[in-house]
Structure formats: structure tokens, C-alpha cells
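In the previous lecture we treated proteins in isolation. Real proteins rarely work alone, and many bind small molecules. This record shows how such a complex is specified: first the sequence, then the SMILES for adenosine-5'-diphosphate.
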Amino acid sequence: MSRVAVLKGGPSLERQVSLRSGARVQDALERLGHEVVGIDVGPDLVARLRETRPDVAFVALHGRDGEDGTVQELLEVLGIPYTASGVSACMRCADKVLAKHAMRDAGLPTPHFYAFTQAAFKELGAADALEAIEERLEFPIVVKPSNQGSALGIRFARSAADVPAALVAAFSYGEKVLLERHVHGRELAVSVLGEEALPIVEAVPREEDFYDFAARYTIGRTTFVCPAELDEGVTARAQELALAVFRLLGCRGFARVDILLEESTGELQVLEANAIPGLTETSLLPQAAEAAGIGFDELIGRIVELAPALR
Ligand SMILES: Nc1ncnc2c1ncn2[C@@H]1O[C@H](COP(=O)(O)OP(=O)(O)O)[C@@H](O)[C@H]1O
Ligand SMILES: [Mg+2]
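The predicted 3D structure, ligand included, written as C-alpha cells:
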């Protein structure tokens, strides 16, 4: 039994999801017999951690600060062991462009892309290169901020006329934006726990509203199937790929890798890795664990055990 500080909430756009993940994690930890202190992450974080003196911190934060290595850096400074990935892996996962470069360099499949900062458009005339980019990626092109999650700021541009507005939307979320080849196919989420890939979750849209993002992410418009109905070979390849990405980016404990299975080629393409995926009632990693016979409490217990002792 240990004293566990559950870090939740925080200032990111995914605050509400994090509060739900955190509350559920706290309940599980209490049932497991731990002494639990919930901390809503804000300007008093360091002071709260110093007074709480936890044996371990359970990081149930999503999005900026909590998932990008910032909170992890503070925990390192304070000498508090914590769950999930360390600083550098969090930084790589939170920045899709960094993660995609790492994957491409390592020969792991990720959709072709180009990425630019706002400064490149303002000061270096990057807009003049758009036509060349559009030719290489072919429409539709996916435009997204490098550093967001939960489909925020993502637009599908169907023609050159859609690109400027898509860029403006994406830049409102961050300084770096990527233009990515659109992959038409099935959407798979492969969760990793410890050294093991869990059963695959497939997100199946109910209607063919494939360009309509808001609709796709509205509750009830997407059905989740776990384990995904895939050939054994595809399942094994997707799980191996997820583990390869997990190791490449230096992840620890758990993570979720989002992969597309391209319809025309049958090939897998990795979109991103999430260093701290959701842990709510409807989140994908808990569903995957359940399908592997690992209940929520056991999952949370395992995640705490996987937190390294003090370095
Ligand atoms: N290149 C792409 N081709 C097709 N669909 C995409 C592509 N990129 C993103 N999407 C769609 O957008 C969703 C979110 O994209 P993702 O890159 O996982 O960002 P995040 O989950 O961080 O918002 C994906 O699950 C997928 O439905
Ligand atoms: Mg995703």
C-alpha cells in the first residue's frame, strides 16, 4: 500500500476528460487499498506535491502540460516516481511532427506529410510552396496542428480552396501544423500495457460522414468494436507495429497507438502515439484491457506497479 497522488484536470483543452479519468482512477486506487490524494493541477502543483509527499504520482492528465513532458519534468525535479512515459517520450508523442519524423527515419509506416510553423508562412512565404505540397500529397489532404489531441483543429481539405481556412484553423491551436496524406480505411487503436499489445479496438463510423469531423466525434455516431474483426495476420502486424512505435518513442507503462488500415493497399499507417490515453468509462484503453481479461482496477494497479522506483 502506498500514498498515491492522482494528478488530474489541469488547464488543457482536455481538462474535462482528464477530470473523469482522474476520478475513476482515484476510485480504483482506493479499492486497491492505497491512500489516495487527488490534485487538480494548477499553479500550486509543486506546493501540493511537496506537502502531500506521495510515494508515486498517477498522471491522469491529457493534452498540454500533463501529456507533453512538462508535469513529468516537475516530478523528476521533486524526485517523485510517476506513472506512464518519462519526459522525452512524452515530448515526442505530444508533437506529431517529431513522432512522425522518428517513425519515418526508423522505417515505420506513417502517412506522407509536410510540416511548417506559422513563422514559415509569415516570414518565409511558405504559402508559395502549397501548390507543390498539394501535388505530392493529392487531395483530400488532412491539415492538423502538431500538438493537439481529441481531433481538435483537424480539417480535411478537399481541394486547394479549402487549404487556407484549414491552415488558419490548425494554427489557432499551435505554432506548428502538418499537412498529411489522407488514408482511406479502417481506424484501429492499439493499446500497449507494459511490454504487451492489448486486443485492438476498431472505431466504426455509423454513417458515411467521412469528411464530417464533428459528426464523427459526436457520441453515438461511432461504434467501437473490440477485439476488432481482422485477419490474424493483420492483427499481429498491427500489434507488432504498435509495440515498435512504443519502443521507438521510448514510452513506458502504457500508451495507445492510432493506426489506419488502408483499404486500397491493405497497409498499416501509424497516425500518432498517445502517451496518456483516456481512462474514462468509454475510453479505448480500458476497453482493450477488459477484452484481455484485465478489469479496470487491475489495470490501474498494473500501471502503478510499472512506475519505476526513484531514479
Ligand atoms: N491522414 C489521415 N487520413 C485519414 N484520417 C485521418 C488522418 N489523420 C487524422 N485522421 C482522422 O482524424 C482522427 C484524429 O487524428 P489523429 O492524428 O489521431 O489526432 P488526434 O487524435 O491527436 O486528434 C483520426 O482518428 C482519423 O479519424
Ligand atoms: Mg488520435
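Summary for your notes: The two ends are 20 Å apart (CA to CA). The pocket of adenosine-5'-diphosphate (ligand 1) is lined by residues 111, 142, 148-151, 154, 180-183, 187, 258, 260, 271-272 (CB under 6 Å).
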